[in-house]
Amino acid sequence: MKGKVILAGGVLGLVAPILVQLGNPPNMGVCIACFLRDITGALGLHRAATVQYLRPEILGLVLGAFFSALATREFRAMGGSSTLTRFTLAFLAMIGMLIFLGCPVRTVLRLAGGDLNALVGLVGLVAGVAVGVWFLNRGFSLGRAVPQSKVSGYIFPLGIIILLLPLFVKTPFILFSQQGPGSMHAPVLISLAAGLVVGILSQRSRLCMVGGIRDFVLFRDPHLLYGFLAVLVMALAGNLLLGHFKLGFAGQPIAHTDGLWNFLGMALAGWAAVLLGGCPLRQLVAAGEGNTDCAVTVLGFMAGAAVAHNFGLAAGPQGVPVAGQVAVVIGLVAVFALAFFNTARLALTQGVKSNAQGS
């Protein structure tokens, strides 16, 4: 299994600089948060004209996981555990990621490109996951998913298949950026193929950035971290070979140098993600496997992206707006409340059961 994780991480790390070379935004060969944000814009859910594109990498990733799960008989329609809480946590995680300007995958890819601001973000991510693990150790739970009808599991992959059509047949109601990061993309078929391969490998290996940190903190199990390191090593090698490596804090592409908010943004994202059970990459893969809770989580990410850009919360190369700073603080308070009350609720339930058994 360790070999599968290393292979999945290595392929992801290698694919990212190649996609940059072919046209994707620099230091953003693959970014789940940024690409979901672009898809949200393409659907007209936000009007930031520079970040609107139906990213084939995301569509391919879900379909790769879907086909892999079907082929290996691992497709399971499951869900129904704390749906609204999951949506809210995902919403808040996306706010944090758009303050940092990247998901856990892009954190590693930015670091592999020499962006030292990503090192600050990585420290924030680890801190957020560690706080989330503290709550897990005290009984935090969103409840258990239960079997759903197979139709429910097919809805999300079917929606992804439908979204493929506007990539090849232009429609007036799908928006495509004419400038900015949204206008920068590799050829559609290459991006789609890259997504399919990464989706298949991620489904087979259970690759997850947040899960790797969580398992190491909880159990001292480095298994998933090998994938994390493989992404870093292969992306670094690719960037050096292709001339994309630039070491430093200043002048990094699609990044800002405000260390405090880089840290807090990723702390918020990591905390929320560990309570959700995985990073955005893992959520997309699991949604492709039929998990409707994870499909709702992806919708929560997209809702967070829509609000972040419609209300001026998202950061940019110039820095983090005051509204975004306020949103992060509110987000941290909200995640604490959700973590606390879902932990307290479980403790109370267990206490009632113990009392009933003793009487």
UniProtKB/TrEMBL annotation:
Pfam family, one: Sulf_transp
Record flagged with keyword Secreted: no
Keywords assigned: Membrane, Transmembrane, Transmembrane helix
Transmembrane stretches, start-end: 57-75, 87-107, 119-139, 151-169, 184-202, 223-243, 263-282, 294-316, 322-341
Keyword rRNA-binding set for record: no
InterPro entries given in the database record: Seleno_YedE, Sulf_transp_TsuA/YedE
The name this protein goes by in its record: YedE-related selenium metabolism membrane protein
Organism: Desulfofundulus thermobenzoicus
